[in-house]
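note to self: dont lose this again. the chain is below, predicted strucutre after it. 227 aa total, dont forget to put it in the shared folder this time
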Amino acid sequence: MLFRANNLGRRLGSSALRYSTPLASAKPVGSNQFLTGHSPARPQLGNPAEEQEAKLTRLEAALFLSREPISTRKLANVAKLADGTEARTLLKLLARRYEQRASAMQVVDVAGGVQLLTRPVVADWVRRLHGENEEIRLSPPAMETLAVVAYRQPVVRAEIEAIRGVQCGEILRVLMERDLLRIVGRSEELGRPFLYGTTKKFLQVFGLRRLEQLPPIDQIHSVGAEW
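---
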């Protein structure tokens, strides 16, 4: 069981490498009027294409300013769009434009919402520019414990320790302080011990929209020998 927990931790750690760093504080640069340092002229709305561009500009601005994943419903409200469906349509258009011009930015589905993030290819450069103060560093035992909770949640401490083969009280406390784990209830077992689960921040850090996007357990077992 200890070997399996180690495999889960390493696979989860590999997933974290795909996470992109938000660049909300960067100075706008580029040929697009919205991305220049000048105030663009208010668009003259006269046809559907111009109206769509105005909506796209508002949506892009809302994404740029948001430091947390934002739901399409809230995005539609902030950008003055008809509804979440229109927001999703414009998000797809914006994502295609970023892709076509090989932009450093990308629109990412994460933690139940959408967020404007930098691409992994520029992660090292952004880290040097932005600093590493916000970077989350976890020890192998902490990563293993986090992986066990992620796949077995809701789970009690005794089950986590049975899988890992060591005491996990202090590690659980640290993971909760970093807002990666939380108490989600109490078990019906004797003594009603706490049940642990992951948080929204966990999804953000590992670039997941939902827990269902975690790699399947059998997939982890099949690559265990390579680790």
